[in-house]
Amino acid sequence: MGSRAVEDLASSPGVEQVTIADANLTKANQIAKSLESSTAKVDVVSVDARNHDQLVKAMRGYDVVASALGPFYMFETRLVKAALDAEVDYISICDDWSAAQDTIIRFDHVAREKGRMVITGMGASPGLSNVGVSLLSQQLDKVKKADIYVYMPAEGEYGEAVIKHTFFIYGTVVPVFKEGTMYMLPAGSLHYDIELPKFGTQRVWNIGHSEAVTLSRFNPYLEEVKMTMGMGKGSRIFVALGRMGFFSTPKKIDLATRLLRKFSKPSPAAEPDCALRVDVIGEKEGKEVTLTVCGIATQRESTGLALSIGTNLLGQKKLRVESGGVYGPEDCFNPAEVLKMLGEKGIPVFSDLAMRNRIN
Question: Is the pTM value of this prediction over 0.70?
Fold first, then answer.
């Protein structure tokens, strides 16, 4: 996902330089070499994300730091602190609810004092899901509920950070925003059968993404945020193991990740498509209505391009907020502009679910 953002930024108008900061210099240099013909200069710097001084040194002097380093419950607050110390704006694809919440609590006041922008969660979900809520909210007189449904097939080939993140969001208590109040419920304790483009009806469960944390700050009239995800055949196993406490601590997550990677066979298939559906329920001219947007893309494309778009808009200061602070994407970006840019990069967003199903 990070490499896809690099590829897109390197060819984006107005971008002069992209530096890949990584511990894996071999891979980073391979990516940089493949982009030698890009309009932007692409170079590489070695950095250990656990070393604060190295991070600050690597970040200083840039317009924006864009992070795809997960799992974010381990790294988001480290990176945000380093970015603020380096006096640089920051954006990430952070998808862990606790990391987003900790970032807001610990660094919102610091970012405001420094006049720096920190945008947490600009991927597909969170990110495009938040932007979808923002887009639909603009069409209503009053917003009451936001329902977000994600489908990410378990049979895909995923890296270590994605696996750890998945265990984390299924293995702990997670926030559920309902009746204007934040509740903590076990992940997988709620489930819904929902129609999704391309994939038909799928079962999804409540999980620990950050939409409930940031969207609840976005609109004072919002009463409920429902954040759910399904993974097809593997979902029930993740839910059951999570409910039994197999993923309840970082050590257990590390062990489960090692076992899965040891005994699972590499997938010969291409990266599968994922689906995102966003419903916003509210009032329009005195009547209750439900509006929907949805889209399909691979995780690498949707998340990497969302990060690139957000980074570009942040660098150009094309934002809906002027003061520094920690924000979600819904606060910062013009949703129509983001989705237009996404469509130009090959990922259309559909507002008619029935039509999208007929197309597929």
Answer: yes
pLDDT tier, 360 (very low <50, low <70, confident <90, very high otherwise): very low
Quick: pLDDT tens for 239-265: 888 888 888 888 888 888 888 877 776
| CA count, 13 A, side-chain hemisphere, 77 | 15
Q: Would you list the domain boundaries of the chain?
A: 2-124+301-343, 128-299+348-355
Q: What is the pLDDT of residues 127-145, one digit of tens each?
A: 999 999 999 999 999 999 9
Q: Which CATH number fits the domain 128-299+348-355, given the four candidates 3.30.360.10, 3.30.429.10, 1.20.58.100, 1.10.10.10?
A: 3.30.360.10
Choice between 165 and 136, residue whose per-residue pLDDT is larger: 136
CATH assignment, 2-124+301-343: 3.40.50.720
